[in-house]
From TrEMBL:
Transmembrane helix keyword on record: yes
Membrane-traversing stretches: 6-26, 47-64, 76-99, 111-131
Recorded superkingdom: Bacteria
Protein name: Uncharacterized protein
Keywords from the named record: Membrane, Transmembrane, Transmembrane helix
């Protein structure tokens, strides 16, 4: 099976979890009277927003990946790197929400940075393949 047939399904199903997260955030803010606190609410919003936008990015990525001329193995590898990056970057916000302190680094902030690097690797690989195929 082609990675560009399977991976978009994972992206689309993941968007459903982002929708649930939006519902949960709204519930926390409106019914719990701001019980999360400013720091946690800010990181909840950041994680939620990054997840949604980056998952939409993956859908565009899957459209262009076959045009880059990579083998199935490399398409699987770059797709996995991209999804891992999306999960790490957005998930890092949620980890920091749970364990972080205001103004201090945590495992969550490190995870967010690692996710950004993984996304960059996947995007540069796609770009290189597309340029090579011109």
């Amino acid at each position: 099976m082609e990675p560009t047939q399977v991976m978009p399904v994972a992206s689309l199903l993941s968007i459903v979890t982002v929708e649930f997260g939006g519902h949960a955030l709204l519930k926390f803010i409106t019914t719990d009277g701001g019980r999360l606190g400013e720091l946690r609410e800010r990181f909840f919003r950041a994680g939620h927003a990054h997840a949604g936008i980056l998952l939409v990015l993956t859908l565009v990525y899957w459209l262009y990946l076959p045009r880059a001329g990579y083998s199935n193995g490399l398409e699987w590898a770059f797709g996995a790197v991209l999804l891992a990056g999306v999960l790490a970057q957005s998930g890092g916000f949620f980890v920091h929400l749970g364990v972080g302190q205001a103004g201090a680094r945590s495992f969550g902030t490190t995870l967010t940075r690692v996710g950004a690097l993984l996304i960059a690797v996947a995007l540069v690989a796609l770009s290189a393949g597309l340029v090579r195929e011109l």
